[in-house]
Amino acid sequence: MTVFEYWPRTVAAARAWQERLRPLVELRPLPRPPRSLAGVDAAYEKDDRRLFGAAVVVSWPDLKVVETVGVSGPVPFPYIPGLLSWREAPILLAALQKLTQTPDVVLVDGQGIAHPRRLGLASHVGLLAGIPTIGCAKSRLCGAMGELGREKGSVCPLTMDGMRVGWVLRSRTGCRPLFVSPGHRISLEESLAIVQKCLGPYRLPLPLRAAHLAANQQRRGTAAPAGMRPAAGRTEMTIAG
Questions:
Q1: What's the chain's average pLDDT?
Q2: Does residue 151 belong to any structural domain of this protein?
Q3: Do the Cβ atoms of 165 and 134 come closer than 8 Å?
Q4: pTM (2 decimals)?
Q5: 106 in a structural domain
Q6: Are 114 and 82 contacting, i.e. CB atoms less than 8 angstroms apart?
């Protein structure tokens, strides 16, 4: 069975599949220090019928862009909180499959296990791709957090049902925080440490910001700026539909 043969068409089916897939998510330390990371993100056309996905690979730990790919395709599922993975996972998986190298860890603009059914976008992508993933979301979907300082680098735990499911991280002084949680095949501690080392002058970690810009540039039909142009060139593909 291919990944998309079971892609749900209803909210009830989507939630049921999340419950089925949830036990397959693994939280464990990386087998070795990463040598490359990728950021993946998606952008939408104004009519919300088509989306554009991008994957940007950077070397680790110097965070230099080495490859960028872009893909486009139809939106397969409506926007419903808690079910984002059924909407964006296909385009992000297509982008990852187009890369000429497999990154050691992927940062995803979405939740990992910090999700009502412990299967956010990052966990879903990691599970289907078989790659360690980290969720780095811009808003909190669930869980309780403690008091967080306003300074860049401030951290507090994110808990749910008495268990730690992630971290709340102030990535830029005075900015709204990020919600970091392991997606698949990585530990809680490693997820936070990697994201912390990816912080720059922006709210988003650098690999995710590069993917965000690349997806939006593709949506607008513009080329990547010189500072982001990958050494290996840029590849685009279209998903039929």
A1: 90
A2: no
A3: no
A4: 0.90
A5: yes
A6: no
